[in-house]
Amino acid sequence: MTVSSGPTAIDVEDALYTFVDSYDRAYEAAAANQQLSVAQICVLIRLDQRRGMSSLATELGCDASNITQIVARLESRGLVIRQPDPADGRARLIARTPEGDAVSTRFDSAFDFAREAKNRLSTEERDQLIVLLRKALGG
Amino acid sequence: MTVSSGPTAIDVEDALYTFVDSYDRAYEAAAANQQLSVAQICVLIRLDQRRGMSSLATELGCDASNITQIVARLESRGLVIRQPDPADGRARLIARTPEGDAVSTRFDSAFDFAREAKNRLSTEERDQLIVLLRKALGG
DNA sequence: TATTGTTATACTCTATAACTATA
DNA sequence: TATAGTTATAGAGTATAACAATA
Fold first, then answer.
1. Domain ranges across chain A
2. Which of A66, A84, A119, B50 falls between 20 and 30 A from B74, CA-CA?
3. CA B112 to CA B122: how far, in whole Å?
4. Yes or no: is domain A10-111 CATH 1.10.10.10?
5. What is the pLDDT of residue A20?
């Protein structure tokens, strides 16, 4: 009876935790790199097309009043603007300003974690990883 | 010239984002299930052995004053206690109460995301996933 | 009536700075 | 002097409730 020295020496759950934690820390660091919080970046990068607040709240899984505040801070920094929705007098369309576009682009450059992870794998390994992650997620 | 219909039809970066996002949401939901924030759970589950505040701050990558407040809230809910450190008059040792142990255990039950992910994979697939995640992380 | 968004409020997370007590 | 922890403070994230305007 011997103890395995292969990959099973550590648990999948540990490996997942380590990876997720690293991902999250890198994401937060990249946001901080642009002097933005994760919440602010999450809104900003979802504005490739202008859109309403409620769809943002739904997609991000938070209350609409939360989006109001985050957008207000982004607007006060000149990264987004609120426009009236010609099709619905109640709604506002949020759009990135040119400066908001620039910050969003710089964030994409700064967040290199996923790109680097990808680059460390061969084409076959990438396919394997996608299959395994999808299977692990179920549904 | 045909378009691939295999796993490469989606990107590794997308798969990683989806997985991490699902993991994070499940973690937060499990914490909320115990009426605790993620920050509070992060402290609570690291108290299997009693320990000082500064080591918690270092491990969690935050300021000591932050730990002071989180511990104060956990203490006010009866989940941890602050004890004097017999070996260092400046330090306090934080320990879980029996109720804190119970909440920590219930959190472990509630957070079934990683366990479920593991259970969807065969032994060989688990080994593959560990290898790929470690390689993707580099170093 | 239902929906979109805002405002007021309250609690939590978080860091910085200043502080006390001890090493 | 350096370290462990606290307190005060301020900005940000978050939800709930009440609200105005519009559909």
1. 10-111
2. A66
3. 17
4. yes
5. 98
